[in-house]
């Protein structure tokens, strides 16, 4: 899977000129590690050309007898090449790498004689300046990044709050973050991961606020990654998760810089990756997936109400259909006498047992959602309306489902969309299916088994070693004001206990004192 | 390790496949809503059941099944042989007992109902004046669902406290308690209508008599805290004659929004003698047009007269129950609470009850009237 | 002190969690129907029996802590070996493990019986047993923290019970409580019968070494708080039951609490007891997990056994036993035996252990002084 993506990317960058290439050797990074010796112009050009698989946009430009510039056309800024490099070089009479470096009016100019360095700089968008009889090569970085402009975050939109989202450019994203946090304590560590993609990853955290231990863990996890390609931060998050067996994500993906920075400020660790518009925030507790930055931007009463609404919506979303199935299949006694007539009448001609009926309807809703999200926006809306109304009404008319269940299923689908986090919203919808099956087999007992299983499962999980269910368990009283509810800002401690540095012992000790008060 | 995990998955799947509980899918069952029991012969019981189920036209239909057997479950099995759907009793709302059965003893019927975990403790018991079977089986002109009808009839009257609450729980509680006797609502079928006619009163588990007319109100007044309903009392018009000449000899007055508080005290252990204090607060809703209630004295006279009327009725009821030896008002509980369980048992209390003396003190306070004097 | 538990730092728990452990352990299946048994002995004074048994429980907890404090980081298994020597100590440890297994089985079987009676009469009890046992394996193999976490959450699951009890208040009759203090012997007998219901706090014997060292002092306070909370729940249920049922009726009601719930109605849902029974799974879960854990500690003090392996062996044994105890009569007999054994193990034995431990410690101190 990774390889396919990698190929695609390579194809793009080499302008799809595969047929011109001779079958060349596949080089790995370590094989390129060698020091250049003095070479003539031709030798040097051929060496480089061979190493980068002689692409079609590989340009060799001779300024004069002594100076040769090599670059890949699509990766550099032509304006800068003309104005700053070519014109300067033409005026130099006796070029040495040192002299060129001094003369060039560019911010980033290096001198290197390492083959791997200059190859990767060339691919990264630098012009290599070779001077006669010199092993050292001048690397002038004039890369042009094609990146889309900053726009509002689409998946995590909110009414009040910053209307800017990350884009795919790491530099832009880091600058965005730096705009929010001007602290000199903001650490930015760089990693390059992926044999082929050589993706830059930035590990961001506030020194002194983030837990040293957790930073070490994450650093170690990134360093020990051994993949050929890495395309999106979602994949990175999965690769460095605590447990991959669970459906629950243990790292938050966000495209909102404010959310990201909020995490950093509360002592979490952020990871940004080049080419991905999603930042990773970790460690994260289960509850925080249901927080929206907007809760904090509103007054605390409203924020609390919204959060409670969201949590009840999620519980309803997971359990509404199973309860319907359980009650109608096994526990007709619990239905109150006012409800039992409409319920039984609506199901009178439905040929399936409730469990099949419910699974069928849930599947339809999932199909509609999936089709709607894969199609272009305008068509997608039509599909939703047509599918929802036509299929829904027809299904009831045909007697395949009861209309009361349609209300339940639609409600629970609606409720699941209140989850601010897309990944978590998907999981909430997924959770329903096994619970419906259990409810269809053992009624309420089945639902309860599912609840117990979920509880144990969540208790077992951890995010970067921090308990997943905190601040509920282990109980962290200081974090409670900003968990299920949201109290006034004065009550919310800036830093989550989960991420506090120092050993667990001392933090719990503090908590305990609070408890005993 | 992996093998073990696979084994575990198999175990789970096995569990799901074979552990499935027996479904009682709502539209594939017949819900017994109303069950009526009658005695057929010495040891046989006829159960008549109003069943509700849904048909293909999305309507709920009511059908009646009637069978005779030794146990009620036996009748259910027999009825099941006639029915197209499984008959379940979990939604039963009312159990009616024919008066013949009630006179013979209801313990067995109660025990059967209580033993079945399907049955709700909240279902109502009532006695039919006559036979329960014909009442359920009859096709009424205005009543489409007899089960629902009787349930609402009882529920609303119990909520308004026009009759005593007779949930399965309370019925069992009182019938098992040695120091109180049962009183159950009495239902009667009158041509094309079914209504509550009064109370059936029991001695032990046998029905011995009934209270009709206004009497159930006073039973509720003594037994329970009153916070609903209304009553019409007829008082002599004589004391008010001086106000206006139009006042008739018999003056009807309707009191509503009644709140009452009652207290029973044992004052003498030997006789035994009880002090019954009842405080009633209410509002005058209807009174003869010539009386204006503005006058303080008028209100006082009215209160006095109503008190007298209340006392008269309560004394009458107590006397009647004493004659039947049916302690439906629960004086025995008070007696037991005072003398201890060791000094009184069921037999002794049955001997004592006809001899007890009850001094009823009633205070009536008419708080307000309507919006027009 | 080879037996001292060198539990890892992260496995240590805060003292206030003892509160939740006590609540999680004491409230189990007994609460469904304890009233009848006690009523048979103490009649209308049954609530006094509850008070009495809880007073006794407080004393026992006090003595337990006194014993545990003498041996800093030892659980009961270690203490028994220390006090009674290797052979007798190991034997007593074995007895204690058997007791925990018995308790585990009693809780499980009683719960399944309730489910079978009220909710699913046709489901094979073995299937329910497998499902619950698998859940327990999943929980216990994750370690002590998860087990405590379950009791923590199950406590909050309990909190919806007291509000529900407001509804039956409407049907109560205070006369059923009178006269008070009629039969002192009966009350004492009732308190003895209560033992099956209120056991569970003996788990402190095993949990104690896991409490953070700094907080061991305050743990006792939380244990008493936990007892007070369960007392509060039990006494409320007992009082309401006594006022709700007439005496001879209560003698025949097998699960009085559930029968009370039976009457509760909401506009959209009735028959709360069915939901309650199913939801009770989460409430018995900490019970089961902690007993299993206790048994594991006992076994692991002798054999070096991995928790995973032990759990599988344990639940297999339990599962096999479920085949032999099937009918209500057998379950009742089992409960009777368990009640008797529990009374000895939980209410009497701690005093004996305390006396022997004191003698042992004093003697040791004495020899220490002379040398």
From TrEMBL, chain A:
InterPro entries: Spore_Ger, UPF0353/GerABKA_families. Residues 1-11, 22-34 have a biased composition (Basic and acidic residues). Residues 12-21 have a biased composition (Polar residues). It comes from the Bacteria. Keywords: Membrane, Transmembrane, Transmembrane helix. It holds the Pfam family GerA. Residues 1-34, 496-517 are annotated as: Disordered. The keyword Coiled coil does not apply. One of its GO terms (cellular component) is membrane. The chain crosses the membrane at residues 308-328, 379-398, 404-423, 435-459. GO terms for biological process: spore germination. Belongs to the GerABKA family. PANTHER family: LEUCINE ZIPPER PROTEIN 4 (PTHR22550:SF5), SPORE GERMINATION PROTEIN (PTHR22550). This is Spore gernimation protein. It comes from Ureibacillus manganicus DSM 26584.
UniProtKB/TrEMBL annotation, chain B:
Keywords: Germination, Lipoprotein, Membrane, Palmitate, Signal. Residues 22-187 form the Spore germination protein N-terminal domain. It comes from the Bacteria. Gene3D superfamilies: Nutrient germinant receptor protein C, domain 3 (3.30.300.210). InterPro entries: GerAC_N, Spore_GerAC-like, Spore_GerAC-like_C, Spore_GerAC_C_sf. The keyword Cytoplasm does not apply. It is found in: Membrane. GO terms for cellular component: membrane. The keyword Membrane applies. It is a lipid-anchor. GO terms for biological process: spore germination. Residues 197-370 form the Spore germination GerAC-like C-terminal domain. Belongs to the GerABKC lipoprotein family. This is Uncharacterized protein.
Automatic annotation (TrEMBL), chain C:
GO terms for cellular component: membrane. The chain crosses the membrane at residues 12-34, 46-65, 86-107, 119-140, 147-170, 190-211, 223-245, 274-295, 307-325, 337-357. Gene3D superfamilies: Amino acid/polyamine transporter I. One of its GO terms (biological process) is spore germination. Its main location: membrane. Pfam families: Spore_permease (PF03845). It comes from the Bacteria. It is found in: Membrane. It is a multi-pass membrane protein. Keywords: Germination, Membrane, Transmembrane, Transmembrane helix, Transport. Belongs to the amino acid-polyamine-organocation (APC) superfamily. Spore germination protein (SGP) (TC 2.A.3.9) family. This is Spore gernimation protein. It comes from Ureibacillus manganicus DSM 26584.
């Amino acid at each position: 899977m990774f390889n396919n993506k990698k190929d695609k990317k390579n194809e793009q960058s080499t302008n799809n000129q595969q047929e011109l290439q001779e079958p060349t050797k596949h080089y790995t990074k370590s094989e390129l590690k060698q020091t250049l010796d003095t070479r003539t112009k031709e030798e040097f050009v051929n060496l480089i050309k061979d190493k980068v698989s002689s692409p079609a946009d590989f340009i060799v430009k001779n300024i004069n007898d002594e100076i040769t510039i090599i670059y890949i056309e699509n990766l550099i800024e032509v304006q800068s090449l003309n104005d700053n490099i070519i014109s300067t070089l033409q005026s130099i009479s006796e070029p040495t790498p040192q002299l060129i470096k001094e003369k060039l009016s560019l911010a980033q100019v290096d001198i290197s004689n390492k083959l791997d360095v200059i190859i990767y700089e060339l691919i990264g968008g630098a012009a290599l300046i070779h001077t006669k009889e010199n092993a050292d090569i001048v690397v002038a970085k004039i890369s042009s990044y094609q990146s889309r402009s900053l726009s509002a975050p689409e998946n995590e939109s909110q009414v009040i709050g910053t209307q800017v989202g990350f884009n795919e450019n790491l530099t832009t994203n880091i600058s965005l973050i730096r705009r929010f946090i001007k602290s000199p304590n903001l650490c930015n560590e760089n990693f390059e991961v992926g044999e082929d993609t050589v993706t830059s990853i930035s590990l961001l955290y506030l020194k002194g606020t983030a837990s040293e231990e957790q930073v070490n863990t994450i650093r170690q996890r990134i360093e020990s990654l051994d993949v050929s390609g890495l395309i999106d931060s979602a994949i990175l998050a999965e690769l460095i998760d605590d447990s991959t067996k669970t459906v629950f994500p243990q790292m938050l993906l966000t495209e909102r810089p404010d959310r990201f920075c909020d995490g950093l400020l509360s002592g979490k660790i952020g990871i940004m990756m080049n080419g991905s518009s999603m930042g990773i925030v970790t460690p994260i507790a289960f509850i925080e997936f249901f927080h929206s930055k907007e809760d904090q931007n509103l007054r605390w009463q409203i924020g609390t109400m919204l959060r409670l609404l969201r949590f009840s919506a999620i519980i309803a979303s997971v359990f509404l259909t199973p309860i319907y199935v359980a009650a109608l299949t096994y526990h007709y006694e619990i239905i109150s006498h006012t409800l039992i007539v409409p319920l039984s009448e609506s199901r009178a001609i439905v040929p399936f047992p409730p469990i099949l009926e419910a699974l069928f309807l849930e599947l339809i809703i999932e199909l509609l959602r999936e089709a709607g999200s894969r199609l272009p926006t305008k068509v997608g809306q039509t599909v939703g309306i047509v599918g929802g109304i036509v299929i829904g009404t027809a299904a009831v008319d045909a007697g395949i489902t009861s209309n009361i269940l349609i209300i339940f299923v639609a409600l629970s689908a609606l409720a699941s969309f209140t989850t601010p986090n897309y990944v978590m919203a998907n999981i909430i919808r997924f959770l329903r299916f096994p619970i419906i099956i259990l409810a269809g087999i053992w009624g309420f007992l089945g639902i309860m088994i599912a609840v117990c299983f979920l509880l144990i499962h969540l208790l077992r999980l951890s995010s970067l070693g921090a308990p997943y269910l905190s601040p509920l368990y282990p109980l962290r009283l200081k974090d409670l004001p900003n968990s299920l509810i949201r109290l006034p800002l004065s009550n919310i401690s800036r830093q989550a206990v989960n991420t506090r540095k120092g050993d667990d012992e001392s933090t719990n000790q503090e908590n305990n004192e609070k408890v005993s008060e | 390790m992996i093998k073990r995990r696979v084994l575990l998955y198999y175990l789970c799947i096995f569990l799901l496949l074979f552990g499935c509980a027996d479904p009682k899918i709502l539209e594939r069952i017949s819900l017994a809503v109303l069950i009526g029991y009658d005695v057929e012969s010495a040891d046989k019981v006829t159960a008549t059941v109003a069943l509700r189920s849904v048909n293909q036209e999305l309507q709920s239909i009511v059908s009646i099944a009637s069978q005779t057997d030794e146990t009620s479950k036996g009748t259910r099995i027999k009825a099941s042989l006639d029915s197209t759907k499984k008959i379940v009793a979990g939604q039963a709302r009312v159990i009616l007992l024919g008066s013949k059965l009630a006179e013979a003893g209801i313990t067995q019927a109660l025990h059967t109902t209580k033993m079945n975990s399907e049955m709700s403790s909240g279902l109502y018991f009532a006695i039919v004046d006559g036979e329960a079977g014909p009442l359920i089986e009859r096709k009424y002109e205005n009543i489409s669902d007899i089960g629902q009808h009787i349930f609402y009839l009882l529920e609303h009257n119990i909520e308004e406290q026009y009759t005593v609450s007779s949930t399965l729980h309370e019925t069992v509680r009182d019938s098992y308690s040695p120091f109180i006797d049962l009183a159950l609502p009495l239902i009667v079928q009158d041509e094309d209508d079914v209504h509550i006619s009064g109370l059936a009163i029991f001695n032990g588990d046998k029905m011995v008599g009934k209270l009709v007319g206004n009497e159930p109100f006073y039973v509720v007044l003594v037994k329970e805290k009153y916070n609903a309903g209304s009553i019409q009392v007829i008082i002599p018009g004589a004391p008010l004659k001086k106000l206006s000449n139009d006042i008739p000899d018999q003056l009807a007055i309707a009191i509503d929004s009644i709140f009452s508080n009652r207290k029973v005290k044992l004052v003498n252990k030997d006789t035994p003698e009880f002090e019954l204090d009842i405080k009633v607060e209410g509002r005058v809703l209807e009174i003869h047009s010539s009386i204006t209630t503005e006058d303080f004295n008028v209100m006082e006279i009215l209160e006095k007269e109503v008190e007298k009327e209340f006392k008269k009725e309560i004394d009458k009821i107590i006397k009647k129950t004493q004659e039947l030896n049916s302690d439906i008002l629960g004086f025995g509980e008070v007696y037991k609470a005072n003398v201890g369980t060791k000094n009184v048992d069921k037999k002794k209390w049955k001997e004592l009850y006809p001899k007890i003396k009850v001094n009823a003190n009633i205070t009536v306070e008419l708080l307000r009237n309507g919006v027009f004097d | 002190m080879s037996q001292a538990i060198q539990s890892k730092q992260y496995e240590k728990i805060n003292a206030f969690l003892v509160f939740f452990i006590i609540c999680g352990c004491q409230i189990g299946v007994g609460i469904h129907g304890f009233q009848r048994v006690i009523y048979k002995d103490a009649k209308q004074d049954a609530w006094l029996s509850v008070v009495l048994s809880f007073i006794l429980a407080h004393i026992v907890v006090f003595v337990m802590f006194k014993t545990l404090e003498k041996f800093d980081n030892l659980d009961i298994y270690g203490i028994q070996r220390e006090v009674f020597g290797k052979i007798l100590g190991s034997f007593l440890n074995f007895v204690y493990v058997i007791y925990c297994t018995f308790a585990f089985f009693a809780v499980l079987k009683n719960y399944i019986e309730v489910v079978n009676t009220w909710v699913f009469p046709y489901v094979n009890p073995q299937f329910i047993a497998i499902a619950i046992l698998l859940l327990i394996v999943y929980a216990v193999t994750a370690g002590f923290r998860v087990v405590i976490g379950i009791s923590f959450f199950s406590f909050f699951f309990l909190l919806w019970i007291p509000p529900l009890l407001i509804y039956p208040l409407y049907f109560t009759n205070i006369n059923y409580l009178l006269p008070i203090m009629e039969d002192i012997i009966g009350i004492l007998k009732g308190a003895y019968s209560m033992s099956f219901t209120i056991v569970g706090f003996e788990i402190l014997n095993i949990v104690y070494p896991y409490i953070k060292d700094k907080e061991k002092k305050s743990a006792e306070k939380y244990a008493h708080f936990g007892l007070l909370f369960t007392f509060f729940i039990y006494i409320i249920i007992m009082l309401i039951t006594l006022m709700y049922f007439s005496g001879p009726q209560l003698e025949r009601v097998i699960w009085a609490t559930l029968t009370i719930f039976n009457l509760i109605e909401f506009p959209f849902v009735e028959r709360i007891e069915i939901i309650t029974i199913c939801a009770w799974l989460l409430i018995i879960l900490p019970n089961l997990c902690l007993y299993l854990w206790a048994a594991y500690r006992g076994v692991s003090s002798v054999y070096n056994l991995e928790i995973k392996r032990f759990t599988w062996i344990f639940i297999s044994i339990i599962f096999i036993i479920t085949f032999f105890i099937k009918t209500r009569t057998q379950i009742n007999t089992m409960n009777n035996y368990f009640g008797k054994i529990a009374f000895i193990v939980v209410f009497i034995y701690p005093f004996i252990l305390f006396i022997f431990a004191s003698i042992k410690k004093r003697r040791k101190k004495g020899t220490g002084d002379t040398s």
